[in-house]
Amino acid sequence: MVEEHNLYEVAITKLPGVGTQLTRQLVSYCGSPKAVFEANAAKLSKIPGVGTVSLKNIQEGRKQALYQADEILKKAQELDVQLLFYTSPKYPDRLKQIADAPALLYFRGNSNLNQRRIISIVGTRQISSYGTSVTEKIIESIKPYNALIVSGLAYGVDVVAHRAALQAGLPTIGVMASGPETVYPAVHRKYAERMLTQGGLLTENSFGTRPDAPRFPARNRIIAGMADCTIVVEAALKSGTLITADLAHGYDKEVMAVPGNITSPVSEGTNYLIKSLKAVAYTSVQDLVELLNWDLQDEAAAKKAAAPAFDPAEFTPDELKVLEVLQQNGEEQMDNLSWKSQIPVSMLASVLLGLEFKGIVKAKPGKKFGLII
User: Fold this and answer.
1) How far is CA 365 from CA 89, 323, 332, in A?
2) Is there a single domain that holds both residue 43 and residue 174?
3) Residue 93 located in a structural domain
């Protein structure tokens, strides 16, 4: 069933001359996409970024935008495509952090785009036997960590990564430069269809969009933006892959590159990334684990799982916040405990006193507090 808010979420992305950043600005000031369509000229003109041309485009483009949105929603229902506006809880949280993230995504599949661990794997279309072997080994090594694998469904490293992820039982997302109904290249359709039940296909482009050349660099920012780390397997010195690596680097994301034979053209790019300190060398999965602190995360998760469960009915909300921090970190100083629990120090003292009376928390030397059990 189509909700009214979905119609306006799609429609606002179809207003002429209104880009992603202005879309966010409009929604932020008006409160919702629907409110943007209902706002009068006086209100819209006060929003930063809305000039004379933008105002005219919004006012004159509303009717056509709503018509287009209605057609898109019908098509989405027909083809089982999810429309993810940037305010949707299903929209990739990591992608929201970048300024040029798409306001709307088209998604086919069953994967969680906010999975705990997400890795992008990219590289040349002219993959070597070494590149194939390394890509498959990377995926197999990542398997115990249950990461989501993202790539671009292209020839070479991309499709090898998707195929290896499918074989390993890992979810994998193909980010496309076409509309959601068009798999490009068509020869990869068999993998794309499997990905619909073990990952999915993602694009910012509406139905009927052809995979024209300029759309691929734009597609790369999604690949870079939605992952914790981008791993470059093989790449020429001047290539779209290095654009993806530069984007990830610019987004303050981690970048890794596989060292290669210095006589191989498809290793020039990866060796350059390592040499220029734009990427960390990938020699084994342990490099990745240490870079992203997966080992420390797993240790913390194990400690939390082993920690006693507290009945919410027996504690106040503030007490539960304090207990959660102490479970995760052991003992904590008062100031740190205040910051991590987001409880002012002036209030925290009485919360801790209450927990001491309940025999749960104990004061320790150096203004530290810890759990008794």
Assistant:
1) 43, 19, 11
2) no
3) no
